[in-house]
Amino acid sequence: MSSEKEQVIGSAGNVQFELLKNSLTKSFQEHFTSYPEGLVRGKPGGFVCSQEYARHADELLHFQPRGDDVWIVTFPKCGTTWTQELVWMVMNGCDKEAGKQPLNIRSPFLEFPYLASTKMQGNSPQMTKMISVEMVEKMASPRVIKSHLPLYLLHPNLLDTSKVVYVVRNPKDVIVSFFYHHKLIKIHQFNGTLDEFAQYFMDDEVFYSPFFPHALEAWALRSHPNMLFLFYEDMKRDLKGEIERVAHFLGKTLSEQQMTALVEHLGFENFAKNESVNFEVGKDLGFMNTEGRFIRKGETGDWKNHFSAELNERVDKWIEKNLEGTDLKFVTELK
Ligand code: A3P
């Protein structure tokens, strides 16, 4: 047992962030080539992020929500962007003209400016300048704000103040999608195989880990009147039905014409082509690699094209262990 006191890099309320020691090992550094400072882990809760986030975690915890805000809170790769566009459109009368502005301006990503330190590769100056927390603070109401932070690292009054749409996706497809994300985004720059990435994911050593507590915290709050809990798979199965749920939750009514147009607008083919949401601009700005796309495949069950039988067994056991005693269930395939 070591008597050495760990260095606290930052804190948010009672959560203290310390260096995730494994993230400085040679093998980790060879796999994740953009984290020269390593990653941090919060105690309690185990939340994993960058040192830069840790230094600003308290500021983010105290970021003041407004009564007319709508927050999209998700674990990455669960359909955040899709839901942001859906919510923004419903909130803004399906105004496609105004929707041509980049989504990250219309619906800012709260902690984005604090994800990467200047030491992290791929942290282009344009990227950090695009949005700041001060800009989100000053934004005109009603704001549609995105965050990947678990609820306990957002303002304690968030749910009693603002409407929150939480979206989750089955973890098998999240692993595959996050793997490609780590290859695409330069601040992650993952070099290993999908199998290796899946193990880091299950060991809760990737950005925004751990997955299950993130989802279960929101799941436990799903009956709160200000919470709408969505599944990516339901959006795939019945987009119109899920838009209706969102509109009802937000107190908005869509005409039949608006609904038809919105279903079309949010369909994968159109979405992938839509420059205001597909982040292809990240390639010009230099924080995304040219190979790969943010709006990648958009399917449920893509894990079957990537998992070996052995990996699938490992993932199944991990899911089973983490969902034991809960009533949260995931759909991993659509008929
Ligand atoms: P894949 O990598 O499996 O394709 P997030 O926005 O949370 O980062 O999630 C990204 C995932 O949502 C990607 O998954 C992306 O393709 C998918 N996605 C984005 N828009 C979508 C849409 N209109 N329909 C279906 N899936 C979509």
Give the helix/strand layout.
Blueprint lengths: L7 E5 L2 E5 L6 H6 L7 E5 L4 E3 H11 L8 E5 L5 H12 L11 H4 L18 H6 L2 H6 L5 E4 L10 H4 L1 E6 L2 H14 L9 H9 L8 H10 L6 E5 H6 L1 H12 L5 H11 L1 H6 L7 H5 L23 H15 L12
Parallel strand pairs: 5-6, 5-7, 7-8
Antiparallel strand pairs: 1-2, 2-3, 3-4
Helix pairs in contact: 3-12
Bound molecules: adenosine-3'-5'-diphosphate.
Describe the protein's architecture and organization.
It is a single chain. The chain has one domain (64-323): Rossmann fold, CATH 3.40.50. Helix 3 packs across helix 12 (239-250). With 335 residues, it is α/β, with parallel strands linked by helices. It has helices at residues 26-31, 51-61, 80-91, 103-106, 125-130, 133-138, 158-161, 171-184, 194-202, 211-220, 232-237, 239-250, 256-266, 268-273, 281-285, 309-323, and strands at 8-12, 15-19, 39-43, 48-50, 70-74, 144-147, 163-168, 227-231. The protein is built from 16 helices and eight strands. The strands form two sheets. Strands 1-2-3-4 form a four-stranded antiparallel sheet. A four-stranded parallel sheet has the order 6-5-7-8, sandwiched between helices. The longest helix is centred in the last third of the chain and has 15 residues, at 309-323. Bound molecules: adenosine-3'-5'-diphosphate. Keywords: Transferase. It comes from Daphnia sinensis. InterPro entries: P-loop_NTPase, Sulfotransferase_dom. Pfam families: Sulfotransfer_1. GO terms for molecular function: sulfotransferase activity.
